[in-house]
Amino acid sequence: MKILERYFFVNIAQAVAFVLVAFLALAAFMDLTGELPAVGKGGYMIQHALLYVLMLVPGNMYRVMPIAALLGTIYTMAQFAQTSEFTIMRASSMSTRMAGGILFKIGIVFVVLTFIFGELITPRTAPLAERLRLSAKGATLSAEFRSGMWTKDTIHEGGQKGPVTGSRFFNARQISADGKLLDVRLYEFDNSMRMRSLITAASAVFSGNHTWRLQDVTETQFTNSRTLPAPGTPLPNGQTIQNRFGQDTAAVGTRKLASLDLESEITPKILSVSRSDPERMSANELAVYTRHLAENRQETERFKIAFWRKLIAPLSIFVMMALALPFGYLQVRSGGVSFKIFIGIMLGVSFMLVDNLFSHIGMLSTWPAFMTAAAPSLLYLLLGLGALRWVERH
Q1: I need a surface site. Which of 83, 134, 171, 334 has the fewest CB within 10 A?
Q2: What are the transmembrane regions (predicted)?
Q3: Do 215 and 160 fall into the same domain?
């Protein structure tokens, strides 16, 4: 049995590797085509574009591995059927359950390989590729909005574990390639959502331990009238009351500082995750960012679905290989190898379309994130089992 397992593994691994290389080459060519218009602008040259595309290969491999496993296994099973090898194996007491067990063991190798690329390699190479691209262009990163990147965190009293005293909206107009924030604005509110301070800074650098060092700072404090001392009394920062506006916002005090240390839940990791494509993030990064959004009462559904898809995607390789097993029972008269490969391509494309469709439907409906991510794989697993039962009977 070990000899048979080794024979299956060698043939399937060779076929999957061939398909994988073809898909990766096609994806790299498309990525390079998209980068060519930017070549020659600033310091971005062709070698930078090639290196950028090369760093995207691990992420592309993670996405195409299930389809490569499907086509490679279909090709191998079709070859076995064409040469009657699979018929001889069945006549030698190899049951369908045994054949499925062999494919399952081979699938474990592909799942582990996919997990390594998706969880360990891609989350490191994708940000590195983006920094390389920005550095070569001499540009800074801005978010989707014209006003830059926005995020939100909570303000705690006496450190990160203290009681919540308010919320803070964090805005950076630009982010340099080395992670430095430029043109920073912080809007702080109390628990009643009354604005209590506005902080602007020319730049901000993360100094560790949830602390940002702000440079060239201007802080404007808004003091509530109910706790406001008499006019002319110095405020805690040494300023005096300048204006009175009414009961809710009675006074404004302003001070300028060369630097200011700000303690915040926001870290460079959260910032990098917030502007990254969820498909290129690890499950751990998605879990951390989803928890951050939930704590700040922000929408989390998109990242919950991405998290479960990240966990389930490698397991879909088992589903793809289960879909390929029935092709070993189809004899040459049922269609040649090329026809079976064509069917496999259609199955793979339809699986990707259904998977994307369910992820969009899940964000529009109230479906649980796990069911949204798992439903396509479950549907195609039932399809594979149904096809296997049909070919066994006929």
Answers
A1: 83
A2: 7-30, 102-121, 311-331, 337-358, 370-391
A3: yes
Cα distances (angstroms) measured from residue 30 to each of 33, 35, 62, 147: 5, 9, 17, 31
Please indicate, yes or no, whether residues 324 and 357 belong to a single structural domain of this protein. yes
pLDDT at 1: 61
Interacting residues of 6 by C-beta distance below 8 A, sequence separation 6+: none
Domain, as residue range, for 173: 149-274
Q: pTM score > 0.90 for this model? A: no
User: For all residues of the chain together, what is the average pLDDT?
Assistant: 81
Same domain, 18 and 100: yes
Q: Which amino acid is at 330?
A: L
Q: Is 294 within a domain?
A: no
Same domain, 340 and 253: no
> In this predicted model, what pLDDT tens digit does every residue of 45-93 receive, in sequence order?
888 889 999 999 988 898 899 999 999 999 998 888 888 888 888 888 7
Quick one: pLDDT at residue 28? 92
How many structural domains comprise the chain?
2
Q: In this structure, are 229 and 310 located in the same domain?
A: no
215, 252: one domain: yes
Query: Last residue of a domain, which of 257, 274, 291?
Result: 274
For helices 2-35 and 46-55, give the axis angle rounded to 10 degrees.
140
233 pLDDT higher than 70: no
